[in-house]
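Example record

The entry below shows one chain as it appears in the dataset: sequence first, then structure tokens.
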Amino acid sequence: MNKNVIISVKGIQTSSGKDTNTLELVTEGRYYKKGNTYYVTYKESEVTGMDGTTTTLKIANGIVTLMRFGSVNTQFIFEKGQKHVSYYDTQYGTFTVGVMTNAVTVDVDDEGGEIRVDYHLEIDNNKQGGNDFHMFIREAGQVNDECSGSIEVSN
């Protein structure tokens, strides 16, 4: 299984001061399966601030691993109840990021599906607040694809 998909992503960040930022993105990507593991991959753009970066999500056994390669290089592991630390490498420097995952919901099959992750970030051991990441994956052509590449940011 290897297909073109439309990926809808909604991210909500809540700072420790309780301010929220919402980011919504609809883009094209690839969805494939190797063994019992699903993968979703798409290219970032100027709009997300990571132009030149490819993002891949690996979905297996209730664990979601987010990998970015290009202008930004990192790997976040989302595993319920676990904290994982990794490096976040950008053109401006490298820092450590701790990811403490509160909840992971995975409902995917060969047709697509959805992923939801609720987590907290620490950058260089400083708490940054909470994050809610929600992704829908559907086969390209199933629904109106005219909004590919659109993004909305609100505060």
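Notes for this example: Residues 144-155 have pLDDT under 50 and may be disordered. The CA atoms of residues 96 and 123 lie 6 Å apart.
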